[in-house]
Amino acid sequence: MLAFYRRLYPFKSVFHWLNHGHTPTRLFTHRELAFTLKGDVYLRYNSFNTAEEMKKQVCTLNPTRFEIGPVYSARPRDKKTVRPAAFKPTLRELVFDIDMTDYDSIRTCCSDAAICSRCWTFIAIAVRVLDKALRSQFGYKHLLWVYSGRRGIHLWISDKEVMELTDDQRKAIVGWLTVIAGGKEMNKKVNVRLGSKPLPPSVQMALEPLAEAFTELILEDQDCFASKEGWETLLRLIPDKCESVTASLRRTWGKDPDRSSLEKWDDLKREVKGMEKGTFQRALMMATIEDIILQYTYPRLDAEVSKHRNHLLKAPFCIHPKTGRVCVPVDPNDIDRFDPEKVPTVTQLLGELDRAGEDVKPDEHHSDWEKTSLKPYIEMLDRHAAGLMEEVRQNIRNGTGMSVLRFQLSIDVTNALFELQI
Amino acid sequence: MFSARDRNAFSKKSNIPQVEKYSNLKYSHRLNFYDRPPIDDITIEDFETCALDRLRVLAEIESSFVRNRSWEELKSVALTQSEKYLPVHASTAIAVDRDAERKKDHVGHFVLRLAFCRSEELRRRFVKSEMALFRIRWDTDDRVEREEFLNSRDFDWIPVSESEIKEHAEELTAAAGGLKDFKIENEKFYKVKWTRVPDLVERRRVFLKGGMAYVPAREQSSLVFQEFQSNLEKALELTAKALPRLDEDTRIVPILDNLSQGFLAGVSSEWSTASSSESTGKITAEMIDDMARKHFPMCMRHLHECLRRDRHLKHHGRLQYGLFLKVLGLSIEEAITFWRRSFSQIQDDKFNKEYRYNIRHSYGLEGKRANYAAKSCVQILTGETPGPGDSHGCPYRHFSQENLSSALLATYSSQGLTQADLPEILHAVKSQHYHVACTRVFEITHARDGVYKGEGVGGGESVTHPNQYAARSRELEKARLETMKAESDGDIVMS
């Protein structure tokens, strides 16, 4: 582990990504980092002035993983010495977390901590839908998707406007994007419209790609309605007002339980087509079919992670303690081809390093990662950070940056005053 | 509502006569965004009375929030209170001194700003109450006057062009789905940065594109309220920073202190803040199973059963149940024993590391050492919606009807709940009166203690807190045992 931090972890790239620039600003110096050491010792409120300082501390502590928190109004490591009122989270990337466990009730291939390339498709769909929504509806540009090392994926958005969102506004985005709600005891988890009225436009936009995925993933691959339990769940989603449909389907399927999910879905659609046009029931059933597709495929978010600025999230390129895999960035355009089982593990990387060391004489430690399969991933983060830094440069050139500087200056003065009062 | 240029063009045509009509007033509108502080001289007595009268109205509004009154109830309560202490009449009410009323409103607001800017908590509560007051006045304001008020301010809203409306007609109609007789041809839309209308975004009531929200004109009240809130929040923070310089005036500080105290005390105490020492007798971990069966409301029964079945509860479940048990009277030692035994599949090591801290934290023994109150029904109903795999929340709200029916029967049939009672309970649930459903269940299951229909948890009060449910249930049992004891004592004497 120590060798990994010393020779491979891309501190410089992570620094650029968090800091939005080359010279350290508050975005880095006032940023909380939390370390998890061996034996589950948890060290919160660490902060560093430079990337080198951070590397030194990480190598001393050798944590099993570390997490990134918000930018505070004072340096987190000074927390004990400043007044509580002068220590508030101010800026923070907007983060999302999608975890496979939330899909346990619908996936049939694995459960709990297990993940295979088949259930990764759920995540791939979620990534595509969210990436599109956040870019086109909210107009955000700097999205970084990071594999969480085992069974989920994280998203970090670093646009300037996003960094400044309040908790309420974060909650609003989560509300906008949350379609699946309701606990274990609620059968129908999609309630985003009134009666059979059309879906809200944002959800409607997502529906088309989801409908395709529904056939491939839910009906063919996962075969969700094959078991009795599976199709009873489906029948419970049909509203009470259309009891005749439920009864007729239950009869057909009861007689012939071996029908595949695809056939059962066709049965359902045929029932609806058979209903009289223009009736209330038919409209309701059409809406129900859409809702069912959403319930089985729409992204399931872990809402708590995104709502508050002070939530900590594991840093990219950490090692997942159970799988040993590196939390690497993922390209959303290439998400279908991403295979979580092919992600390099820490043992594999150190092996590669040893082998490379035999061929060439060891030179600079900093470029060690270039000799391993970590290279494309680090380059991906570098490109992402370069995009961010370019935008900051543009803003300064256009003059908007000056106001940011002035704003920072005024905060500095206020903080200095606060500290004097103590 | 319009950009400055549009508005000028508009007002030249139609608004001139009205403007002249009220031009003799110093405050030309009943509604006030409180952008500018009052600059006249006022006496120290006026300073205090203006603020006190306003405070009376705000305190009533806040206590209505706490008591979970509906918006309509809150409005009528606040209006009666305003009539008494802080009347602000429409511009058409010529018989009253409108300027004086409006000045009082203005001064009172600014004095209270000084009193309530000092802490985050006070600011939050002040903003919430002021928002409600503004909304009430907005609702009751004359339509024409409201229009004028809107025209008097530049809200920086960009009107959406006809061609753009046509281009997105379908999406705009779908987003406006809930509005009454909505016709895309008759609607005006405004574009604003989405961050200004987070409430509409959260409920998916607008169309979003590239970070801009397309807001239908009739949702503009939402924009106005948002604007009012963010203005006030910003202003309060600025005031807080400037306040230290004002400390020199020795006459004002005591008044301000007094006012902020009054706000805190004026609010009826919540049930949840009642100390745990109130419950008599020590409760031990072993007693919980029995007590759950006899006294707990459905939400806690459900959590208890999930805990027994899965030998685990997720975070929010632990929080909701743990705090409930704390207020019930379970001491910290007993609580740790209880949870340790309940999580029987978890190794000691893991328990000590991951759960012990949280339990101690909820008892105020770790971290910021806050004494957390148990969650009230309002908090449970409006708090985090249970996600997949969660078991917290209010069963009446978060269960599907079938699951709720079977859960109720399974849980309470031994205490006298029958199939015949279900329709009534489910009816209350359907109309979203979850606390009514819960209260009815309480009445049914406590019928043998002589609780009749409509009595609720004593004196017709309905259930507003799980601990109130449990406490009342225990009281009833105690009373019953005492009478039984008295009777059996009597028997002994006779024999």
Automatic annotation (TrEMBL), chain A:
Its EC number is 2.7.7.-. The keyword Nucleotidyltransferase applies. It is an enzyme of class 2 (transferase). Pfam families: DNA_primase_S. It comes from the Eukaryota. Keywords: DNA replication, DNA-directed RNA polymerase, Metal-binding, Nucleotidyltransferase, Primosome, Transcription, Transferase. Belongs to the eukaryotic-type primase small subunit family. This is DNA primase. It comes from Somion occarium.
Automatic annotation (TrEMBL), chain B:
Keywords: 4Fe-4S, DNA replication, DNA-binding, Iron, Iron-sulfur, Metal-binding, Primosome. Binds 1 [4Fe-4S] cluster. The keyword Lipoprotein does not apply. Its cofactor is [4Fe-4S] cluster. It holds the Pfam family DNA_primase_lrg_N. It comes from the Eukaryota. Coiled coil: none annotated. Belongs to the eukaryotic-type primase large subunit family. This is DNA primase large subunit.
